[in-house]
Every structure is written in C-alpha cells, then in structure tokens.
Amino acid sequence: MNHIATHIPYLRRYARALTGSQPTGDAYAAAVLEAMIADPNTIPEQDDARVALYHMFHTIWHSSGAPVSEAERGVAATAQKHLSKLTPNSREAVLLNALEEFSESDVARIIDVHADEAKDLIRIGQAELAEAARGAVMIIEDEPIISMDIEGIVTDAGHRVFGVAQTRDEAVEIGTDGRPDLILADIQLADDSSGIDAVNDLLSAHGDLPVIFITAFPERLLTGERPEPAFLITKPFRPEQVLSAISQAMFFSSTDTLK
C-alpha cells in the first residue's frame, strides 16, 4: 500500500474541499482505506493508483448520497444551500481539474462520465462557482512577482484586492484596517516570519474568514496531526487553481457576498 500512501494527503485535501468539512472529508477518505483493507483485490496498481483512488472515493461518497457537512452554521450553512443549486457533478469536476490537476479524461474516469461531458462540467462548474461569490482578497506573499501574478488573477476574476503584505507585522497592520472577505497567504514570509501566524492573528481579530495557503511544501501542512487548511495550493501554481480555490473558499465561508 506504499504507492497509495503518497496520495492520501491530497485525497484528504480534496475531500475537505468537496464536503466543506475536515471531519466529513476525512471520514470518507478513511472509508476508502477501509474498503481496500477489507478487500485487497480493490487496491489499484501503482501506475493507475491516483485515478483509481479518487474513483473509489467518489463511488463511496455517492453511494451514501454525496453528503456535505451538516454541522455548519451561519455563512457556511448558507453556502451549503448554494451547493444544492449547482449543476450535478460540476463542482466535483472543476475541483478535480483545477485543484487536483487531473486531466479532463481522468476527471471523466473518476466521476464516470464521457470525456466531452467532463469538459462541459468543468466549464459549467467554473462559471457557477465564480458567480456565487465576489469579495475583497487579502494577499500575504513575500515574492513580488508571485504577488503581482496573484493580484492579476484576483482582479481579472472580478474580486477586489484588499491589500498586499510581505511580512506578518505588515499583514496584521493592513488586514486589521477593515475586514477582508478572504485571506490568501504564503507560509514562509520575507523576514522569516510565518504566514500561518499572520493568518491566526487576523482570524483572532476578525473571527472566521476563508483562508487559502500557498506553499512549495504542502506535506508540511497535510499531516493529519493538527487542523489542516481545506484550501492549499502548491507552488508553482496555475491561475485556474487559484481561481478555483478562491471560488470554493468564498462559496463555503464568505461573508455578505453569499447572502
């Protein structure tokens, strides 16, 4: 099962983003492992392990009614109502393609549709999620070129850049002068301060806000040993990944933009 283990952190990331809850997502990721342990014949071959793993997840998830978290309240509960209005399979398709970087043909295999249908679902999902929420995005990133790139992606998608910070102290100063709708943060900042600490400072000041972390070392956060971010983008990233994560994060826990 070693060839399966390398994919589990990313399956858990996907499951959390899909269900809107870490406990709910983890329960279904665990169910996949339990199914393979119960029947070793279901363990996929190494060459096809990742696609097969996600396909097994979808089989189990859909067999139970494709539930999302029922424990959410407030804006997260509002987002769940929006979720029920999306085109079936479109959200799964766009997440698999943009966040998990599966090809259109692999998306089709995972969710059991034809390749042309998968392509249409990705397009529909991108449009529906982007339309569901607009807001002000706080960017915490110490590399100017990457920061400018993210600013362009954010504004081109119709969002507003709330502010840009390169250090923890700068993030707190900018981020508490008003309230952003979403925080997009690198983990390692210019003065060796922590983007995680900066985010925690802002969450302490504002309460719950949707957060997306960007890092070249995702395995440092996807450990299962502590609360993990539902939205984690790996460097180098593609614009589609950033847009998908922003839409997803705002969709699940935006502020007045979802009401």
Any overview of this molecule?
- The chain has 3 domains: 1-71, Butyryl-CoA Dehydrogenase, subunit A, domain 3 (Up-down Bundle); 73-132, Orthogonal Bundle (Arc Repressor Mutant, subunit A), CATH 1.10.10; 133-258, Response regulator (Rossmann fold), CATH 3.40.50.2300.
- Helix content is 55%, strand content 9%.
- The chain has 12 helices and 5 strands.
- It has 259 residues and is of the alpha/beta class.
- It starts with a helix and ends in a 6-residue tail after the last helix.
- Helix 9 links the parallel strand 1 and strand 2 (160-165).
- The chain has a 5-stranded parallel sheet with strand order 2-1-3-4-5, with helices on both faces.
Task: Write a brief structural summary.
The protein is α/β, with parallel strands linked by helices. It is built from twelve helices and five strands. It has a five-stranded parallel β-sheet, sandwiched between helices.
List the helices and strands and how they pair.
Layout: H1 2-5, H2 8-19, H3 22-38, H4 49-63, H5 74-83, H6 90-99, H7 104-111, H8 115-132, E1 136-140, H9 144-156, E2 160-165, H10 168-175, E3 182-186, H11 195-206, E4 211-215, E5 232-234, H12 239-253
Parallel strand pairs: 1-2, 1-3, 3-4, 4-5
